[in-house]
Write a structure and sequence with these properties.
magnesium; binds cytidine-5'-diphosphate; four-stranded antiparallel beta sheet; Alpha-Beta Plaits; alpha+beta; 152 residues; ATP binding; Nucleoside diphosphate kinase; nucleotide-binding; Nucleoside_diP_kinase; binds magnesium ion
Length: 152
């Protein structure tokens, strides 16, 4: 089992697509273990996107992600980190395959609706940036036996 950080970015919130995005992750069988609506500060943006801070496009990314509320969530599931990345598609909505979230809803390389951690180290680091350990709900979902075999 893995946990990964999802952010429904300001474009997603403003376009009233939160419900549809949450539905897609729920339909896949992922389990939401934490969720909150927040405003990302410039400081948090720099920590979250530390690998991109020196890039030419970082200032516009920072104004975008700090420009409106964001829904931060942690989802859990088998191979959840890669499963979520595959559901998002390529970074640019213009390149992302149809059927992916970005491919279906975005025509931008910046306003691509949803963030997902890109590996186990990033997931651990990013979950800790947005949530205290006690904010993660530990209850096992009752549906699990209808989502996968007992030995998976
Ligand atoms: O989110 P992902 O891991 O697919 O992409 P990234 O290359 O790690 O970039 C992080 C975020 O920066 C993207 O999701 C875009 O919102 C934004 N970005 C941008 O504004 N301009 C670019 N040329 C590339 C990425
Ligand atoms: Mg990335």
């Amino acid at each position: 089992m893995q946990r990964t950080l999802i952010l429904l970015k300001p474009d997603c919130v403003q376009r009233r697509l939160m419900g549809r995005m949450i539905t897609r992750f729920e339909e896949k069988g992922l389990n939401f273990v934490a969720m909150k609506l927040i405003r990302i500060t410039p400081e948090l943006a720099k920590q979250h996107y530390a690998e991109h801070v020196s890039k030419g496009w970082y200032p516009t990314l920072e104004s975008f992600v700090t420009g409106g509320p964001v829904l931060a969530a942690v989802v859990e599931g088998l191979e959840a980190i890669q499963v979520v990345r595959d559901m998002l598609g390529a970074t640019s909505g213009l390149k992302a395959a149809p059927g992916t979230i970005r491919g279906d809803f975005s025509s931008s390389q910046q306003m691509n609706l949803v963030h997902g951690s890109d590996g186990p180290d990033a997931a651990k680091r990013e979950i800790a940036l947005y949530f205290k350990p006690e904010e993660l709900i530990e209850d096992a979902p009752t549906l699990t036996k209808w989502l996968r075999a007992a030995d998976e």
